[in-house]
Task: structure prediction
Amino acid sequence: MDTMKTPKAKPELLVIGWMEHLDLPVLGLRQIKAKIDTGARTSALHATKIQTFYRDDKEWVRFQVKPDGRTPKVWAEAPIYDRRDIKNTSGIAEERIIIRTKLKLIDRSWMISVSLTDRSNMRFPMIVGRTALKNHNIAVHTRRSNLTS
Result:
């Protein structure tokens, strides 16, 4: 019996733009306008009316999301994965709720951690940070956008 593990084949290199439209299918969110920000460690999603509650002895969060300027706000729910101090765009640390959800880009999908925060004064409802891209063989083209649509 061979005990050596076969290394997992890397997916083909995927070149994405600095801005893409992506799905968070577990949350029921499609075509979210997202800035790909390798300067940010953690991904962030615009969320308002954030409420925590318990379901089956586990802490969950319910929040409202507006995926883009054309669609109405929708409610989403997810188990709380963590709470972390994350620096906002002004460099000030704030405690944020972190959830784990699936990110889908073209035909690829994988789990990512996402912090929930009010991004209403920002241009993009979502930021995809570098840890969400790590180990997925993705390169970001800094002068092009929407390469996956």
Summary: The helical segments are 130-133. The CA atoms of residues 32 and 134 lie 20 Å apart. The chain has a mean pLDDT of 90. Residues 130-133 form the longest helix (4 residues).
